[in-house]
């Protein structure tokens, strides 16, 4: 998929993010990748927590509007979504709003921080999985990763190169190694930072969508 495949305004690059949001001394204080990732994750997730419930609702609806108007979304047959935690972008109305044109799947956690993706409809009962994340039941039909055309990927932070900071367990890094579909990070504008530290096993995203717009890398 190329940048030209979508008609929406790209996000403008926030050149002041490192100075404004994190600060040079912030980077100088942390020495290992793990410390740096942990510190950025904590800071950005705290900013996300500070959004009011109403702001989260409004921004989430804008994000869904943008997603539903995006041509590659319409073209995708099988779409991996996620069941949102309280402060995440709320994509729970996606199935209701998208109609019948797509097959949706959502992740189930497996031992050793692996995930499998299972079919999800509006009627699928959700069960509590690892870390209180809700997930489809194990009897929901599993779809191979390679069959998924578009991944909606939750995140703690994303940078202008598509580098993704997750929640610290590496679930999506493992799951997405064999992905063939488009990997679209989903977050609020406050989760967009200039630079995310990258380890060799981190899987980069192909795009980032927030209430500020959609950018393909
Ligand atoms: P997150 O991406 O959730 O922010 P990290 O990138 O810090 O978290 O990864 C968390 C852990 O997962 C790391 O200790 C890393 O060794 C492990 N990990 C990530 N990807 C893989 C992989 N493909 N295979 C094995 N371990 C992995
Ligand atoms: Mg990672």
Task: Walk me through the structure.
There is one protein chain. By secondary structure, the protein is α/β, with parallel strands linked by helices. The chain contains seven helices and twelve strands. It has one domain: Rossmann fold. It is 28% helix and 21% strand. The longest helix is centred in the first third of the chain and has 17 residues. An eight-stranded mixed beta sheet has the order 6-3-2-1-7-10-11-12. It binds adenosine-5'-diphosphate and magnesium ion. The site of adenosine-5'-diphosphate (ADP) has 13 residues, from α7.
Question: What key attributes describe this structure?
Answer:
single chain, 217 residues, alpha/beta, Rossmann fold, 8-stranded mixed beta sheet, two-stranded antiparallel sheet, 21% strand, disordered N terminus, binds adenosine-5'-diphosphate, binds magnesium ion
Note the topology.
Elements: H1 17-22, H2 24-29, H3 33-49, H4 53-68, H5 71-75, E1 78-80, H6 94-98, E2 103-110, E3 114-119, E4 127-128, E5 134-135, E6 142-143, E7 150-154, E8 157-158, E9 164-165, H7 171-175, E10 182-186, E11 207-210, E12 213-216
Parallel strand pairs: 1-2, 1-7, 7-10, 10-11
Antiparallel strand pairs: 2-3, 3-6, 4-5, 8-9, 11-12
Bound molecules: adenosine-5'-diphosphate (ADP) and magnesium ion.
């Amino acid at each position: 998929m190329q940048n030209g495949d979508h008609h929406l305004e790209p996000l403008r690059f926030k050149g002041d993010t490192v100075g404004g949001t994190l600060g040079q001394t912030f980077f100088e204080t942390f020495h290992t990748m793990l410390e740096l990732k942990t510190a950025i994750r904590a800071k950005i997730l705290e900013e996300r927590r500070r959004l009011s419930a109403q702001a989260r609702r409004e921004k989430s609806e804008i994000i869904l509007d943008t997603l539903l108007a995006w041509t590659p979304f319409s073209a995708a047959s099988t779409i991996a979504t996620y069941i949102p935690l309280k402060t995440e972008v709320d994509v729970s109305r996606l199935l209701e709003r998208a109609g019948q044109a797509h097959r949706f799947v959502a992740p189930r956690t497996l031992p050793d921080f692996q995930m499998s993706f299972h079919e999800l409809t509006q009627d699928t009962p959700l069960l509590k999985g690892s870390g209180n994340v809700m997930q489809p039941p194990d009897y929901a039909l599993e779809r191979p990763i390679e069959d998924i055309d578009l991944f909606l990927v939750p995140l703690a932070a994303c940078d202008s190169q598509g580098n993704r900071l997750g929640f610290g367990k590496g679930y999506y890094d493992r799951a997405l190694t064999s992905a063939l579909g488009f990997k679209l990070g989903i977050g609020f504008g406050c989760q967009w930072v200039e630079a995310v530290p990258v380890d060799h096993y981190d899987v980069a995203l192909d795009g980032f969508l927030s209430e500020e717009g959609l950018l393909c890398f």
